[in-house]
Predict the structure.
Amino acid sequence: MSEQRIIFMGTPVFACGILQRLIDEGCNIVGVVSQPDKKVGRKQELQPTPIKQLAEKYRIPVLQPQRIKEEYEPILALKPDMIITCAYGQIVPQIVLDAPAYGCINVHASLLPRLRGGAPIHKAIIYGEAETGVSIMRMVKKMDAGPVCAVASLKISETDTTGTLHDKLMALGADCLAEVLPKLFADEAKFIEQDESQATFAWNISKEEELIDFNRPAKAVYNHLRGLIPSPVGYALINGKKMKFHQVSLSLEKSDAACGTILGFDADSMKVAVDGGIIHIHQLQLEGKAKTSAREFYNGAGRSYIGKEFNK
């Protein structure tokens, strides 16, 4: 596409979809900046970030500053014409934002100014948004507040989870960036300031938000559950232990039972009463056990759970 020198900054799988598209378009990626590797698993072995793995596949130099505010000199030394960021995970200092001639451009997974912050995909579902999308913006000091030069939207389906919506938005973001990038290099992109009065926020999921409160309207509980799938996964307490919910659906049939009561099982789900409907748990995981289907759980200890209430 262009011989302009691009540094890409990102960390998770979502960023990989954007970087892969830039590589496929023939962009001159002179370096990738990622969060440091993290220890994972029981053995606490260092695991390279997804974006680092992709960069190394294409032999692109990788920088992993612990604190980019203090360790920015190697980034500046690459003399970027543009920096593109996507879910990097650290606040980029002003000296880096000011370095490239074509500025720092961010790919954000929401329709800004809605859902600024680190968990826009999760929160789009949890908040019951009807649509979401991606925004391409110029980075400024304030988080996700820069002027926007391109947007693309999509509808959120009733069965979307954070996992399925993530993949749709990753593809949409790659397409949107690829379309606007030539305009950015030609100084033909038009930037529109965000309306601060319309800003909403999508803060990272807290540990408290992982606990599911079944004593709420059916749609709210359902949105909360699928907004946490596949990660970090919502849970509730039963018999003093956590039960995680990996696959769910909703029916609007009525029940007179108290909210959070396990009503019983059908062919492929455990049924839980909520206000105005029933949550069907298709895959679950009891604390200390492996993930299992509702049917397998029923055939084991599940029958003894019928009539019990979560979080009691």
